[in-house]
Write a structure and sequence with these properties.
By secondary structure, the chain is mainly alpha-helical. It folds into two domains: 1-47; 61-277, MetI-like (MetI-like fold). 78% of the residues lie in helices and 0% in strands. It is built from twelve helices and no strands. Helix 5 (77-110) runs parallel beside helix 8, helix 8 (145-169) runs antiparallel to helix 10 (186-222) and helix 10 (186-222) runs antiparallel to helix 12 (244-272).
Length: 285
């Protein structure tokens, strides 16, 4: 086979296993089509209720108006800069949350003493809402990017941490003992036995943390903890003379960002964890 043919086959395989391939397979799924149909039905009902006056269009505009407004906003450089400010805080905060949560999870999950020593402290700290820390955070970090990151990491690292701790504690001891019998060093046992066994739980923690990080990236701006981003923008257009079209359009874009992140993370899981039962072809063992 020629180099060109091999490259073409490689590109075809990448398309089948990448995000585009995931989307293609997803659209063929009956479940996906039902979900899309549900969204369409909801939009049609909202459109009819608003157009007929059942819902006051001054406060709940027709769905078509909101969608058109969202497209119009996405053509404006100023609004795109607000979106980018939110995405930047979201992605950086999520990355730091995964690093902090996973590192702490592997350490605590590997040591019963550390886990038992810190469990009571975590049970006290974890319920404290991030919004309660905004005034204190403003005093320390002012209004800006750093405050967003701190609050995102504080909130989004928990699901990653607890998922990893649980996974490490549930690693099959037979696998660990077998690796010890073969004389595999401790650090290699960690990377060859513990990490692969915990990847599904880590992926679950990341998918839970992603929308949390997005919510914080937006809500911190609404609470006065930022100077730029979708949260600040939505707050501005909803103050004074409320522009409901813009408020709903901005909210729609936030929802689309969250949905897109879920699709991308699901595609990444399928690509990284092809051996997981959830991603095996039906009938495969």
């Amino acid at each position: 086979m020629s180099e060109a043919a091999r490259a073409a086959n490689s590109d075809a395989n990448d398309a089948k296993t990448g995000v585009l391939g995931f989307l293609s397979r997803g659209w063929k799924s009956a479940t996906t089509r039902r979900r899309v149909l549900g969204v369409v039905i909801f939009l049609v009902i909202a459109e009819v209720l608003s157009r007929t006056g059942v819902l006051d269009p001054r406060f709940i505009p027709p769905a078509s108006v909101v969608i058109i407004e969202a497209f119009r906003l996405c053509t404006q450089a100023e609004f795109l800069s607000q979106i980018w400010a939110t995405i930047e805080a979201w992605l950086v905060g999520l990355t730091l949350s995964v690093v902090v949560g996973a590192a702490a999870g592997y350490v605590l999950g590997s040591s019963k003493f550390l886990y038992r020593s810190t469990r009571a402290l975590f049970d006290v700290i974890r319920p404290v809402p991030s919004v309660a820390l905004v005034p204190f955070g403003i005093l320390l970090f002012q209004q800006g990017f750093e405050l967003k990151l701190v609050l995102i990491v504080y909130t989004a690292a928990w699901p990653v941490l607890y998922n990893v701790v649980t996974a490490v504690q549930q690693v099959d001891w037979t696998q660990r003992e077998t690796a010890m019998v073969f004389g595999i060093k401790r650090y290699r046992r960690f990377f060859q036995v513990v990490v692969p066994s915990t990847l599904p739980n880590l992926a679950t923690g990341i998918r839970i943390a992603s929308p949390i990080a997005l919510i914080l990236a937006i809500s911190v701006g609404m609470l006065g903890g930022a100077t730029k981003g979708l949260g600040v923008w939505i707050l501005d257009v909803s103050s004074g003379t409320i522009q409901t079209n813009l408020v709903f359009a901005g909210t729609l874009i936030v929802g689309l960002l969250g949905a897109l992140s879920n699709v991308v993370l699901a595609a990444a899981e399928r690509r990284i964890l092809p051996w997981h039962p959830a991603y095996r072809p039906k009938g495969a063992k």
